[in-house]
Amino acid sequence: MITHRAEILVEIERRRLDLNLALLKVYNYYRVLVGLSLLAVISQTFIETRLGALLPGVFVWVAVGYTTINLASAVVLQLVPRGFFSHQYISFSLVLYDVLALTWLMYASGGVSSGLGALILVAVATGAIIVTGRAAALVAAFASISVLYEEFYLSLSAPHLHDDYFQAGVLGILYFAFSLAIQNLSTRLRQNDVRALTQAAELADLERVNRIIVQRMRTGIILVDGDSNIRMSNQSARTLIGANPDEELRALPKELIERLDAWRNNVYLRSPPFQLETTAPEIRTNFLPVRTQDPEGDVTIFIEDTGEIQQQAQQLKLASLGRLSAGIAHEIRNPLGAISHASQLLSESPNLDQGDQRLTDIIYDHCLRMNDVIENVLEMSRRAPATPVRLKLREQLREFNNAYTNANHGAEIEIDVEPQDTEIRMDPSQFHQVLTNLVQNGLRYSEEHSQCSYVRLQGGVDAISERPYLNIIDRGPGVDEAKVANLFEPFFTTEASGTGLGLYISRELCESNQARLSYSRHDDGGSCFRIIFAHPDRITL
């Protein structure tokens, strides 16, 4: 790939050398043909010519030598290495030799009136192509001087012949005119080549930059032709549809093809978000034809992760809602404390009967519950930004297990991580907070359903996306299908004493670390909460 001007000039010189070598080979064949033609004309007796009119013997010997040397140079050119012609000494010498030999043949034929000056013109024109710079002008000057000197010497050696200095001067002018015109044309062609190669290099750089931008974009991009065959896809697109991000995408998923076909039939159709696989994120697709108003041709597919869009919108909403909630929580906290304190004092009164004592206990219990809700709301509003670090998943789970089981006797937590060196990137304190919420729920439901306080922590790496994951599996009854959609909403709970913020906070903490928390029913009937962590080497800030 040509990228710099120095490389462009080198490429121009390489092309010029290739062209000169090809032209030099053709020119050698032409020289051999000229020599043979001159010998054939001088040898025939059917047509009278002026060739060799002054010195026939000299003409024949010069023509034979000229042809022999031309044949030898044609053979040598095929054998000499290409690099030997990087300098123009050989080309320059051959052109000067032609001018000298043809001038000698012109003298043997009686001067410029023989017509051989046209052959010298061909040699000068060829020299202006294969010889550059001042050497080309030197060839034209040498040819002009040779013709003029030939006429001068002819006037001295053969005064009976009519010399023609005017025609010799005209030939000299023609030699210079042709040489300058061809040099000017060659210079313009070389400049055009430089300009074309420069533009090609700039376009190549621009294309390379565009490819880098497309590959680095977080929005998935797939380019398909009219038959839905993939022409190009970036890494984000392969990740979002659940394919291997490091391998080229060979075919579109069936559901994506169906949506593309539906859009081709109605370009105003907007498809709702969907999920290709349970492990893949929810995505939204947009289609744009490469050629305006031609949906049947090439189409660019834009794929966006709706989770990220929802997360950004939710963060903006929660930023204002958090400030409002914190203010309300502070205002409620003071009267709630007074109510709780009053209920405690009232419960200590000896004048209360059993029914009234029960009512004060209910007031106190609900005060505690409301206080838990307020504490969770205040914790969300005061939560510091996540600082994800690289963690060994197996080691973190073991530390959590030891700390949790020491404080909660009877809890059974099974750990299964494969491969054992699986790494995640997450804020350690927030990771332990999420684990605490999910494990507590799992242990409680397992004990209620199977009289066994059991949770299994199963970790690993997804084979397609290469992202680490953690499954929290319990032996509970599972969540009703009708309630799954609202499972992670704030203040939604299936327990009478629950605050409904545990799963909501857990998902928020995961999303702040670019992880994703989802629910599915386990094959054994229990619940399975899955955390899909960000790739430890590809996390974005």
Give the structural class. Answer: alpha+beta
Total number of β-strand segments? 11
What is the distance, rounded to the nearest whole angstrom, between the alpha carbons of the first and last residues? 34 Å
Oligomer classification: single chain
Residue stretches low in confidence (pLDDT < 50, at least 5 long) are none
Secondary-structure element pattern, one letter each: HHHHHHEEHHEEHHEHEEHEEHHEE
Strand sequence of the main sheet, in spatial order?
6-8-9-11-10
Strand content is: 5-15%
Summed up, the domain count is 4
Kindly provide the radius of gyration, computed on alpha-carbon positions and rounded to a whole number of angstroms: 46 Å
What's the tally of helices?
14
Largest sheet: 5 strands, mixed
- What is the typical, i.e. mean, pLDDT? 80
User: What characteristic shape results from the CA principal axes?
Assistant: rod-shaped
Q: Work out the helicity level.
A: 55-70%
